Amino acid sequence: MTDVTDLMRAKEALIYELINEGVLKREDIIEAFRKVPREDFVLADYIDHAYDNYPLPIGEGQTISQPLTVAFMTEALDPKKGQKILEVGAGSGYQAAILAEIIGKKGKIITAERIQKLADMARANLNKAGYSNAEVVVYDGSTGYEKEAPYDRIIVTASAPSVPNSLVKQLKKGGKLVITLLDEMFLIEKDDKVKKTFLGYYVFVPLIGKEGHSR
Ligand code: SAM
What we know:
The chain is of the alpha/beta class. About 30% of the residues lie in helices and about 25% in strands. A seven-stranded mixed beta sheet has the order 5-4-3-6-7-8-9. α2 crosses α4. The longest helix is centred in the first third of the chain and has 17 residues, at about 5-20. The structure holds S-adenosylmethionine. S-adenosylmethionine binds near residues 62 and 115.
């Protein structure tokens, strides 16, 4: 049986580590890390490791990203209250929950997942945590999700071969997109021109789809 106090201690230690490393900065993002119960987004066998700073398997050969990566991407995405966000790669639903917490009830996050079983899991996890502003869709997110476009922010939590045109198209003017190309993460800012800034090296499972890898 997992001791709740141990989990809470592990959570605070992780947050402290991420702040100390200069990864977690914004107060509302730190608060979201405190509020979202990561232990409810990992498989039962890994609950004791929910607040370890590494990725964990979630089934179907996929992973819940390392907390450091979630923190780094969230800060880079610069989400604001009331915004509409598209996530590509729902996985466990944890990153979506962090963003749902930050954008609040007036905001909305759509998270696309190509594997039905994982989409079901993400939906159940998000419902349990009470995030009614997060919607999980089974969809090839490499083409975005036209139905709900345009978006203030787009985050891709799988590695693409190149920036999918559909994602840039579905981004609002003034919008931001965070995406990893092979193992290089970039911030794409759309204004009159599209600006691309290198953020660092990160390893992800592949983005598979029409505007992603073929398999
Ligand atoms: N954000 C997730 C979380 O918080 O648990 C972790 C995502 S995991 C690293 C990457 C996910 O992207 C996998 O679940 C994978 O099935 C999904 N994926 C890959 N290609 C996709 C596509 N074209 N559309 C939607 N999801 C995709």
